[in-house]
């Protein structure tokens, strides 16, 4: 298992495999971030008023020290916001300082460890879960789900009792579809099953659900029909995994507000986090 985690987290292969291209990218990000820091660019752009959404999936035990470092570093330059508050601030155009907002996709059981660490720092987060997969304990099915849908080593998923414990601890729960399907490939009936049904199940079990994030997260994994289904189902927000931060305006896909989120897992070197945050802030300002 440790070897599988190491392979999955290897910095030379951002998708969990080692490639020479990944090694070059790693070196280029580190060099650029070091140069930007040297010329004061990082400090300048990190002080800009904006909301930066960040998301992760996993937090294996070897990642926990990196996660603490990430939280402590971000806290020195940003204020953490709960997910609903971040969405409200965007809608009301109340972005008066640098903010970050954390979320976790897929509903892995190790989210409990992340939540315990977040509680120590009093940092909020939203956990996007797939209600059709919550509580799955069959090891053969888990292995298949992790391999084909999450592309990661076999990992346990949250139970309903654990999801409810997260809510009781003050965290938010969002929908990540019923069963983690790529929405761009689905018919309108299937979209209703994956998006609308997950809204109904979560609302019934947890009392409310406001936020949605689609699996895989790139625009080509989504569609205009899926975007309409999200808001028709009753969700208040819809998140991608397209990199970027928000200043005043949400980006739109077929006139539907879409949140940008950056994937910045805890095991990445912090210079890489700085690279993406700086680049996003520059781009949001039109640079
Ligand atoms: Zn996912």
Characterize this entry briefly.
With 287 residues, this protein is of the alpha/beta class.
Describe this structure in words.
- The protein has 287 residues and is of the alpha/beta class.
- The chain has a single domain, classed as Glycoside hydrolase/deacetylase (TIM Barrel), CATH 3.20.20.370.
- Helix content is 46%, strand content 14%.
- The strands form three sheets. Strands 1, 2, 3, 4, 5 and 10 form a six-stranded parallel β-sheet that branches.
- Strand 6 (211-213), helix 10 and strand 7 form a beta-alpha-beta unit.
- Helix 2 (20-38) crosses helix 11 and helix 9 runs parallel beside helix 10 (224-233).
- Bound molecules: zinc ion.
- Zinc ion is lined by residues 105-106, 176, 180, 215.
Helices and strands in order:
Blueprint: H1 2-9, H2 20-38, H3 41-46, E1 50-56, H4 64-77, E2 79-80, H5 83-91, E3 98-105, H6 111-121, E4 126-129, H7 139-150, H8 160-168, E5 172-175, H9 188-206, E6 211-213, H10 224-233, E7 237-239, E8 251-253, E9 256-258, E10 262-263, H11 270-284
Parallel strand pairs: 1-3, 1-10, 2-3, 3-4, 4-5, 6-7
Antiparallel strand pairs: 8-9
Helix pairs in contact: 2-11, 4-6, 9-10
The structure holds zinc ion (ZN).
Zinc ion (ZN) is lined by residues 105-106, 176, 180, 215.
């Amino acid at each position: 298992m440790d070897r599988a985690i190491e392979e999955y987290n290897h910095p030379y292969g951002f998708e969990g495999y080692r490639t020479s291209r990944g090694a070059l990218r790693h070196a280029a990000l580190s060099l650029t971030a070091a140069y930007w820091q040297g010329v004061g660019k990082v400090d300048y752009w990190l002080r800009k008023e904006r909301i930066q959404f960040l998301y992760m999936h996993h937090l294996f035990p070897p990642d926990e020290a990196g996660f603490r470092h990430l939280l402590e570093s971000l806290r020195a330059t940003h204020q953490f916001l709960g997910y609903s508050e971040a969405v409200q601030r965007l809608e009301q155009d109340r972005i008066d300082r640098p903010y970050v907002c954390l979320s976790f996709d897929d509903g892995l059981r190790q989210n409990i460890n992340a939540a315990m660490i977040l509680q120590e720092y009093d940092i909020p987060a939203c956990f996007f879960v797939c209600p059709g997969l919550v509580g799955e304990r069959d090891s053969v099915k888990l292995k298949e789900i992790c391999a084909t849908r999450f592309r990661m080593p076999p990992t346990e998923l949250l139970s309903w009792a654990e999801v409810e414990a997260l809510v009781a601890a003050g965290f938010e729960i969002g929908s990540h579809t019923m069963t983690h399907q790529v929405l761009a490939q689905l018919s309108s009936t299937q979209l209703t099953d994956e998006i609308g049904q997950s809204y109904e199940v979560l609302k019934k079990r947890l009392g409310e659900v406001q936020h949605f994030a689609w699996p895989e997260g790139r625009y080509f994994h989504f569609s205009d029909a899926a975007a309409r289904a999200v808001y028709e189902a009753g969700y208040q927000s819809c998140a991608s995994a397209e990199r970027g931060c928000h200043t005043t305006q949400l980006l739109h896909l077929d006139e539907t507000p879409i949140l940008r989120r950056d994937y910045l897992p805890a095991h990445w070197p912090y210079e890489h986090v700085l690279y993406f945050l700086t680049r996003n802030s520059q781009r949001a300002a039109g640079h």
